[in-house]
Amino acid sequence: MLKVALVQMRTPADQAAALAQAEPLVRQAADAGARLICTPEGTNILQRDRSKLFDKLVGLDDDPCVSGLRGLAAELGVSILIGSALVRREDGLCANRSTLIGPDGAIVATYDKLHMFDVDLPTGDRIRESESYTPGDRAVIAEAAGARIGMTVCYDVRFPLLHRALAHGGAQVITVPAAFTRPTGAAHWEILLRARAIETGAFVLAPAQGGFHEDGRGTYGHSLVIAPWGEILGEARHDEPAVVVADLDLADVDKARQAIPVLKNERAFVGP
After folding, report:
1. What is the distance between the alpha carbons of residues 234 and 191, in angstroms, rounded to a whole number?
2. pTM above the 0.85 mark?
3. Which of 38, 65, 94, 154 is catalytic?
4. Where are the domains of the chain?
5. What DSSP line would sit under 154-177, residue for residue?
6. Longest distance between any two alpha carbons in the chain, whole Å
7. Per-position pLDDT tens, the chain of length 272
8. Contacts with 174 (C-beta within 8 Å, 6 or more apart), sequence order
9. 179-218 as b/e, with b when 16 or more CB fall inside 10 Å?
């Protein structure tokens, strides 16, 4: 049995302040016995003003929030999935980068968000994530706490082919850290997460941002742990900072995939 924890946050517009918010929640999760602790998208900083954001972004190795969480992982002897850190890439561009930290504090794997949230919402909000970040170009699976973890970020949840590729690659757990908007969260968050779990036969861990942030944005919260059969194992039924703990029986992955063998039955086809 693998005990996991989701850290729900309301990240401020500064990396040091973000670490100050995350640290007690991570410690609470470790005290509850979690071996894998997952934080949301934008764990290290959330700032809608791009000029202010870009002034603060640094490389992954230089980010004070990331460094602090690496130290915590080593101190507590746990794996931490930093849902994403907003960082400057080696080429000077920016990335929305999910980062898996091992219990020794070392970086095990990174994944740059593939799908950019470029939308015009019914509320009138215009969001162009591609104006701030350069998308990744590869799917990533890594080992953590005895499980094979497929890494995604937020808007990726709307692209089933990515999740199926992770499942075909052997992922038993798929992480979906997010900073979902409140309108889209209320409409689609739970439905999408349960669908991704059912169709892949994988556990889905979805730590979320929640509430109204320092930069003025509102996020949905409602962090969720979903089992391979689609049932909810753990949930924050609100948008406040919180810790959600759940036990995963990884044998349930094989049971679900044997019961409904969609990965084996999948066939190539010619499009219309």
Report:
1. 15
2. yes
3. 154
4. 2-262
5. GGGGG-HHHHHHHHHTT-SEEE--
6. 55
7. 999 999 999 999 999 999 999 999 999 999 999 999 999 999 999 998 988 999 999 999 999 999 999 999 999 999 999 999 999 998 988 999 999 999 999 999 999 999 988 878 777 778 788 888 999 999 999 999 999 999 999 999 999 999 999 999 999 999 999 999 999 999 999 999 999 999 999 999 999 999 999 999 999 999 999 999 999 999 999 999 999 999 999 999 999 999 999 999 999 999 99
8. 149, 150, 151, 152, 163, 166, 167, 196, 197, 200, 202, 203, 204, 205
9. bbbbebbeeebbebbbbbbbbbbbbbbbbbbbbebeeebb
Tokens for 152?
Answer: 């995604």
Contact of 43 with 64, CB cutoff 8 Å: no
The string of DSSP letters for 106-157 reads -EEEEEE--S--EEE-TTS-EEEGGGT-------EEEEETTEEEEE--GGGG
Q: Give the Cβ contact number of residue 151 at 10 Å.
A: 30
Question: Is residue 52 among the annotated active site residues?
Answer: no
Cross-strand pairs, 266: none
113 part of the active site:
yes
Whether residue 65 lies in the annotated active site = no
Architecture of the structural domain at 2-262: 4-Layer Sandwich (3.60)
User: Residues 113, 143, 235, 264: which is the catalytic one?
Assistant: 113
33 Cα distance to chain centroid: 20
Q: Which of 38, 41, 65, 94 is labelled catalytic?
A: 41
β 147-151/173-175 pair status: parallel
